[in-house]
Design a protein that fits this description.
Blueprint: H1 3-17, H2 20-42, H3 51-74, H4 78-92, H5 101-115, H6 123-134, H7 140-153
Length: 155
């Protein structure tokens, strides 16, 4: 099933069920997807989003929620952090299962070997290779940390 259609169907169900937080979150996601399709129209591309583009938008929205929750916690606003965390959990339901730490480690080591990376300046090539393999399946921040750790150990 098309992911965008599933979001719309779930919104209708949430409206009927009276789940206000889900309704709010799903509306925000659908608005973000709508904005992305408008953005594509401006670039003279096909305006219908494919599932990969939908996943990119969902990952971006999930990252926003995670960062906002961290900021709210640091500011002592537990109530707002809790709301952001709940929204993040709703968004995660639509994302593919995230890659395990072991899989990320293995992919990073394979990419380092494939690109011939030997020092920190090779970070960009390695990151590009890993992201190609793990697109939408792992957090870029986690991948970045693992790459840095592995490149430092090569010295």
């Amino acid at each position: 099933m098309d992911l965008k259609v599933k979001l719309g169907d779930d919104l209708k169900f949430s409206l009927k069920s009276g789940r206000s937080l889900e309704v709010e979150t799903l509306r925000l996601l659908l608005a973000a997807l709508h904005n992305r399709s408008i953005e594509k129209r401006g670039k003279r591309q096909a305006e219908e989003l494919i599932d990969e583009e939908v996943l990119e938008v969902l990952n971006k929205e999930a990252k926003k929620r995670k960062e906002a929750a961290d900021i709210y916690l640091k500011a002592g606003r537990r109530d707002l952090a809790e709301k952001e965390t709940k929204e993040l959990e709703i968004i995660k339901c639509y994302l593919p299962e995230q890659a395990s730490l072991e899989l990320i480690e293995k992919t990073v080591k394979d990419a380092i070997q494939k690109t011939g990376a030997k020092e920190a300046k090779d970070f960009g090539r390695t990151m590009a290779e890993v992201m190609k393999s793990l697109k939408n399946k792992a957090d870029a921040g986690a991948i970045s940390e693992i790459i840095k750790k592995n490149l430092e150990s090569l010295r």
